[in-house]
Amino acid sequence: MARRETLGRPPGPRGHWLTGNTRAYEADRIGFLRRCHREYGDVFSYDEQTVFVIDPDLTHDVLTRTGHSFVTELAPFDMRRDLDEATAQATAWMSARRATWPGLNRAASAAADGRTVEILDAVADGGAGREVDVLTSMRAFTARAIADYCFGADALGVPGLLHDLIRATRPFTESSYEFPAWLPLPRHRHFFRAARHLTETLTGIVRKRRAAPAGDTPEDLLGSLLAAEPALPDEIVTSTLHSVLMGGHGVPAAALTSVVWELARRPGLVGELRDEADGPASGPLLSAPSTAAPLPSAPSTATSLPSASSTAARLPLAEAVVRETLRLYPPAWLMTRTARTATRLGDWSLAPGDDVLLNAYLIHRDPRWWQRPDEFDPTRWLSGRPAPGPAYLPFGAGPRVCLGSALAMRQLTLATSRLAQRFAVESPNASSVALEFMGRLAPAGLRARFAPLGR
Ligand code: HEM
Fold it and tell me: Are residues 383 and 402 both part of a single domain?
């Protein structure tokens, strides 16, 4: 329980005597949090064990001390709250994380530019100008893109399994009511089945690749993990790929859905993006719009694609659109940490097991740090940093900062530019949909037609 030396625990709404604040929170999550922020300030209690933080410096403090004072490993419906087990998992993950970084750094990410564009073209052309559910289409793109990044030609079947697992995870992210994992609820069975299928498939791919003749290793993330020194056991390679596939799929798809939301409402901006993509600076990747070309069966190699500082760096407006979208609609709008030990949170103190919820969404819209905070204005990113560093954290911060941020920025920048270059984006409901504050923040039910430009 959080306590302040002189004033006791952080203030917060008392809520209903039986259900606490859960019903009010579930009825309107962000409205409830805004009201609490206004009434109680940057740190407030939600219940005896949960504290919300809206202060950028305190948020960074918590994120930076993850691994020491805080853990992040507790599963969404794990009621055992075994802090020792979470700490052991974190230690194992950190060494796998270090081994993964060379395969996800800027240079490695840049090598995937060509494939990113090919896969986006294939998915968009597959829609054939029909009206589609945007989140579903963007997931189809990100699932194929991240599976291809991990496994190249061996990725077959993985996007479908990712889709199943995301669907099975949804009931847990949609509700704050928790049930023990051992209860034989259909949603638990569905989740464990989908997770097992994915793990079995990944294990098979890793074993097959490990057994392949030396020198036959494709330049994908799996190849980079299998080349790590000292060698990683197969189970660690598999669980690492599992984390990368999950992290690299749903979150970027939510971000792209928000990009499309903005593009659908701003034909003028789409025109500017198109000019940028068609301009001489964008280079060969975006210069020749393709027609539904089938994807090549083998992955492109790192040597045949542009170097790290190329494409995205030459699309400053597309990159600014992505940054501004991630500011206004950070898909990971809430990050959770659990106090591992008794520790401090600014003036307050936390007991082991206390949860701290960090709210990127409200920090990104706070008028103390941002001018015109609710306005979508990509140009604020074209002339330097528009707010103090800690006030922008779409990828988190500290030792658990997003492992795929370099890849994500490139994929999203290229996808934004490419969509604007090849299509008129039309949406029948862009002006009526609203953000859904569930697991991943995105406009709910957005539909759009990507009408190919006749040229
Ligand atoms: C718009 C795109 C993305 C956003 C906004 C995003 C955001 C985030 C955030 C905020 C975290 C930290 C969560 C926390 O501290 O609790 C995170 C972690 C992570 N992300 Fe991303 N992410 C994106 C794309 C990706 C991609 C493309 C990949 C894979 C290549 C990826 C892989 C991961 C992994 C593996 C972690 C866990 C890192 C750890 O716990 O050490 N993410 N992401």
Answer: no
